[in-house]
Design goal:
Elements (H helix, E strand, L loop, with lengths): L1 H9 L5 H20 L33 H6 L3 E10 L12 H9 L5 H5 L12 H12 L4 E12 L2 E10 L3 E10 L2 E10 L8 E8 L4 E9 L8 E9 L2 E10 L8 E18 L2 E24 L2 E17 L14 E14 L2 E5 L7 E5 L3 E9 L9 E13 L4 E13 L4 E15 L4 E13 L7 E3 L13 E3 L1 E12 L8 E15 L12 E12 L7 E9 L10 E7 L3
Parallel strand pairs: 1-3
Antiparallel strand pairs: 2-3, 4-5, 5-6, 6-7, 7-8, 8-9, 9-10, 10-11, 11-12, 12-13, 13-16, 14-15, 16-17, 17-18, 18-19, 19-20, 20-23, 21-22, 23-24, 24-25, 25-26, 26-27
C-alpha cells in the first residue's frame, strides 16, 4: 500500500504544495530547537556533550577517592576484580520508561550474556592497569550491533588493585517484520526473521525474502564474530535469487585489536546472476555472470609500539569471472570476455593510535569513534599464466586515511584509494578515488557538513560501470542515472539535532541539503554525460536508538534542478543508513 501511494505521489508533483504544511509540522521541532541554540566551542578530544539528559546515556561516575588515570599508572596499579553489567533495553528507573510495554520488552528480550562481553575484553585480572585498553575495549563493544553503549569504569581501589565495572546497554535485536525503502525512484521491500544477538551470544541468524532493484532474493545468513571462545569469526551466506544463486563462507581471525600479533583466514564465494548495464536509470542490456572467488592469508605484527602499529600479510587469491549471453540483443548487452586471476600477494598496513570520540556528527545521541591518525595499507600481487590466470599482470590496491582537527569546532577527514592491474604495457581496470568530509560544529544542536568525493577509472573491464544517481548520493535523480569513466559528488548539509525523543524510541533530527555531481569521460553503452547535475531538498532523520536494525532512518524530499523531462519534479527517498 505504501509503495503504491508513494509512486502515485511522485507522479503528481503539483500536489506537493498541499503537503508543505504537513512537512513543516514534522520539521518544526527540528528547526525550532536549532533556532535558539547559541554556538559554543567543544574540546577537541572529548565526547561532544549531549544537549538533553532526556535522550542520552551517561557514563557511570568514577568514585572521587580513585585517582585519575595518570595517578593509577604512576602508582603501578594492577587490575583487581572485573564485573560485567549488561543493562536492559529500557531503564525502568526512569518514570517515562517504567511502562507495561517497556517492561514487557525487557522481559522478552534476552540480554547479552556476561560471558559474551567478557570474551571481548582486552584486559584481565592481575594485569597492569592501562587506560588505553579500557578505551579500546569500549570501541570494540560499540562496534557490535547489539549494544547501544559500553563503558569500562574503575569503581574501587584497595591494596594497589583497582576493580573495574564493564557496563553495556542492550538494544532490541529480534526483527520479525516487513521492510520498505525507496530511493532513486525505485522501491524495495522484504520480509525477514532475524536475530542479531542470538540467545545473547552475539551471533546473527537471519532468514529473509527481499525484493530489490535487480533481483528477488531468499537469503539465509549466519554470522558470529567470536566463534566459540575465540577471536575467529564466521560469515556464512546462502542465497537463492530470481536470477541465480550465491554461496559464501568466510573464516577470519582478524587483527581485532591494536596489539594483536597474529591473523589469518580463508574465504570462498560462488555467485551466479544476471548483471545489467544502466543508462538514465533504465536497463540497456543484460548478460549472465558466474563469479567464483577463493582466498587465504596469514598475517603477523609486533603489536602497538610508541602509538603505532605495523602489520604484514601474505596470501593467495583466485578471482574468476565467466560471462554468457541471455539472448538480449540490445547494444548494452555485449558480453564481456571471460577473466581469471590467480595471484599470490603481500601487503603492509601502518596505523596510528589516534582515536577520538564525538557525539551528534553522523549519529544522533550515540558515541561515535573516529580515527584521526594515519592509516595506510598497500597490497601487491602477481597473476601468472603458469598459475592458471588468463594473462600475466601485476595486481595492486592501496588506501590511506587521515583526520585533521582544524580547531575546536572543525574537523576534516580525508581518504584515498587506488586499485587495478598492470599487464606490462598499460594499466587495466584501474580506479583512483578520494574523499573529504568536513564537520563544522555550530552548536550542540547544529552541525554544518560538507563532503566531496571523486572517482576516476582507466580502461575499465566491460563488466564494471561507474554510476551516479539516487542510489549513491545524488538524491534528486533516478538510481544509476549516469555512467562514465569516473564521477564526482559534492554534498552540503545543514544538520539539526533535537532533544525530541518521541515514545522514548527514536531521536529526531533533520537536514537541509544540496547535492551536485557529474560523471567523467564517456559512456559506451548509452547517452553521454549531461554535465553538472544538482538537487536540493529537506529531510527528516530518525535515530534508531533502541534496536539493532539500522542506525538512522532517512525520509527525504529531493528536487532535481536540471534533469531531463523524464524525471519527476520530486523524489521521495526512504532508506536506513549507518550515518546521518
Amino acid at each position: 500500500m505504501a509503495t503504491n501511494w508513494s509512486c502515485w505521489l511522485l507522479t503528481k508533483p503539483n500536489i506537493l504544495p498541499a503537503f508543505a504544511p504537513l512537512l513543516a509540522l514534522l520539521l518544526a521541532p527540528v528547526l525550532a530547537a536549532a533556532a535558539d541554540e547559541t554556538a559554543a566551542p567543544t574540546p577537541a578530544r572529548t565526547v561532544l556533550p549531549s544537549f538533553s539528559t532526556r535522550t542520552s546515556l551517561e557514563a557511570p561516575k568514577r568514585p572521587e577517592n580513585i585517582p585519575d588515570d595518570a595517578g593509577l599508572l604512576s602508582a603501578g596499579t594492577l587490575i583487581g576484580s572485573i564485573t560485567v553489567k549488561p543493562l536492559d533495553i529500557f531503564d525502568t528507573s526512569i518514570p517515562e520508561e517504567n511502562t507495561a510495554l517497556f517492561r514487557l520488552a525487557n522481559t522478552l528480550h534476552i540480554n547479552t550474556r556476561a560471558k559474551t562481553i567478557e570474551r571481548q575484553l582486552l584486559f584481565e585480572t592481575g594485569e597492569a592497569y592501562d587506560p588505553r585498553l579500557l578505551r579500546e575495549t569500549e570501541r570494540l563493544l560499540r562496534q557490535t550491533r547489539y549494544l547501544r553503549e559500553a563503558w569500562v569504569t574503575p569503581i574501587a581501589l584497595q591494596d594497589g588493585k583497582v576493580d573495574l565495572e564493564v557496563t553495556t546497554r542492550d538494544v532490541w535485536t529480534l526483527n520479525p517484520g516487513i521492510s520498505f525503502g525507496r530511493k532513486g525512484g525505485k522501491s524495495t521491500s522484504g520480509f525477514e526473521i532475524e536475530d542479531l544477538n542470538l540467545l545473547g551470544i552475539g551471533a546473527q541468524l537471519s532468514l529473509s525474502r527481499r525484493k530489490e532493484v535487480d533481483r528477488t532474493t531468499d537469503l539465509l545468513i549466519y554470522r558470529d564474530r567470536q566463534l566459540g571462545n575465540t577471536w575467529w569469526s564466521i560469515d556464512a551466506e546462502l542465497a537463492d535469487n530470481s536470477d541465480g544463486k550465491r554461496r559464501a563462507l568466510e573464516l577470519d581471525h582478524r587483527f581485532y585489536a591494536l596489539d594483536t600479533r597474529r591473523a589469518g583466514g580463508v574465504a570462498f564465494a560462488d555467485d551466479t546472476r544476471i548483471d545489467s548495464r544502466y543508462d538514465l536509470g533504465q536497463v540497456v542490456g543484460q548478460y549472465a555472470t558466474e563469479a567464483k572467488f577463493a582466498s587465504a592469508y596469514a598475517g603477523w605484527s609486533k603489536g602497538l609500539i610508541d602509538g603505532e602499529v605495523l602489520r604484514y600479510r601474505v596470501g593467495i587469491t583466485q578471482d574468476e569471472r565467466r560471462f554468457d549471453s541471455i539472448g538480449d540483443t540490445r547494444p548494452g548487452a555485449a558480453v564481456p570476455t571471460d577473466r581469471k586471476l590467480v595471484y599470490p600477494w603481500v601487503s603492509m598496513e601502518w596505523l596510528q593510535d589516534e582515536f577520538r570520540e564525538a557525539r551528534n556528527r553522523d549519529q544522533i545521541e550515540r558515541t561515535e569513534d573516529f580515527q584521526y591518525g594515519w592509516q595506510v595499507t598497500g597490497r601487491l600481487g602477481y597473476a601468472a599464466k603458469s598459475l592458471g590466470s588468463s594473462g600475466n599482470a601485476l595486481i595492486f590496491d592501496a588506501s590511506a586515511s587521515h583526520g585533521i582537527e582544524l580547531d575546536g569546532r572543525s574537523t576534516l577527514l580525508l581518504s584515498a584509494n587506488a586499485s587495478g592491474r598492470h599487464d606490462g604495457s598499460d594499466f587495466l581496470d584501474t580506479v583512483i578515488a578520494g574523499s573529504a568530509r568536513y564537520y563544522r560544529r555550530q552548536s550542540q544542536r547544529r552541525l554544518w557538513f560538507a563532503s566531496l568525493s571523486l572517482e576516476q577509472g582507466h580502461k575499465l573491464d566491460p563488466d564494471r560501470q561507474i554510476l551516479l544517481g539516487g542510489d549513491n548520493g545524488l538524491r534528486g535523480y533516478p538510481l544509476r542515472y549516469q555512467a562514465g569513466d569516473g564521477r564526482w559528488l559534492l554534498t552540503l548539509e545543514q544538520r539539526f539535532f533535537t532533544d525530541w525523543f518521541p515514545f522514548r524510541l527514536v531521536n529526531v533530527g533533520g537536514a537541509i541539503f544540496a547535492d551536485a555531481g557529474g560523471v567523467l569521460g564517456s559512456n559506451p553503452y548509452g547517452s553521454q554525460p549531461r554535465g553538472v547535475l544538482t538537487d536540493v531538498g529537506i529531510g527528516l532523520r530518525l535515530g534508531n536508538s533502541r534496536t539493532a536494525l539500522g542506525n538512522v532512518l532517512h525520509i527525504d524530499l529531493a528536487f532535481p534542478l536540471n534533469g531531463d523531462r523524464s524525471i519527476n519534479n520530486m523524489q521521495l527517498v526512504i532508506e536506513t543508513k549507518s550515518s546521518f
